[in-house]
Amino acid sequence: MIRVALPNKGALYGPCVELLTSCGYKVKKPTKGLYFEDSKNQVEFYFLRASDIPMYLNKGIIDVGVTGEDFHREKQSQASKMLDLPFGHSKLCIAAMENTILDDSNQVKSLRIATSFPNLVKQHFNSTGLDLVELDGAVEISISLGLADCVVDIVETGATLKSAGLKVVGEPIFTSNAALFSAQESQSKEDVKRFIDRVNGRLIALEYQMVEYDVPTNLLDKACELTPGIQSPTISQLKNHAWCSVKSMVKKEDAHQILDQLKAIGCKAILLTNIEMARM
């Protein structure tokens, strides 16, 4: 039985549950408590604050966890990043009141900065002499309350900052996404390796599609240049020896252009299907 930590709420919660459900895991946050056991797959799921998960991983209390790259770096966790995940994209930005004259991030060094990410702020400015106001949340209200002159906070859509009368100053100081991390001492566990393989297989399935088509034998090499596959395409001889059948994985973002090109060179019966799961 391995222990897996997932964010208990927020923008990471829903995509995490959806991803792991598609990997065959039974994942459900209980109405009461923060623990759910998938006995069939030998996994204990713990629903924790995303910002706390790096600490649990660092201490080896949890084997695997999903959290943001920003939380991982802020907590200076020694856990290993195993996979980047295709959700939870955000930016850590400097923001000030809309009527501010600030237009350069370097101008804030001498100001009071409210943030939940003091370590990332210090790293960005390469300074330990900043006037930081450390908060656990609701950072954007600190300026209007007179606690700070500017803030450094996570920006996803910008709606929260705008509603507080704030604007982003300069470029983001850190960009983040969700990732799958493993405690150092857990990486050699077979159940952990299997868990990571499942998630990786689903990510591959989301990135690729399967294309199948019939191609005249004399055009086979040209068609395979368009669909080289991961290692190599699967080629089968048809009853009509003048034709072959080809099956290959293609990047989803390129799939429709490849289908157009296959038809243009003379391929027939071209099919495109989604991949549910993969093992590479």
Strand proportion: 25-35%
Which sequence of strands runs across the widest sheet?
2-3-1-4-11-5
Radius of gyration: 25 Å
CATH superfamily of the largest domain: Periplasmic binding protein-like II
What is the β-strand count? Answer: 15
SSE string, helices as H and strands as E: EHEEHEHEEEHEEHEEHEHEEHE
Q: What characterizes the major β-sheet? A: 6 strands, mixed
Enzyme class: transferase
GO molecular function: ATP binding; ATP phosphoribosyltransferase activity; magnesium ion binding
InterPro entries: ATP-PRT_HisG_long, ATP_PRibTrfase_cat, ATP_PRibTrfase_CS, ATP_PRibTrfase_HisG, HisG_C, N-reg_PII-like_a/b, N-reg_PII/ATP_PRibTrfase_C
Cofactor: Mg(2+)
Protein traits:
280 residues, 5-stranded mixed β-sheet, 8 helices, magnesium ion binding, single chain, ATP_PRibTrfase_CS, 15 strands, ATP-binding, magnesium, D-Maltodextrin-Binding Protein, domain 2, alpha/beta, Alpha-Beta Plaits, metal-binding
What does this structure look like?
There is one protein chain. The strands form three sheets. The protein has a six-stranded mixed sheet. The two termini are 24 Å apart. The protein has helices at residues 13-22, 53-58, 69-74, 118-125, 159-163, 190-207, 220-226, 255-265; strands at 2-7, 35-38, 43-48, 64-68, 80-84, 90-97, 112-115, 131-134, 150-155, 166-176, 178-182, 208-216, 234-237, 243-251, 268-274. 25% of the residues lie in helices and 33% in strands. Its cofactor is Mg(2+).
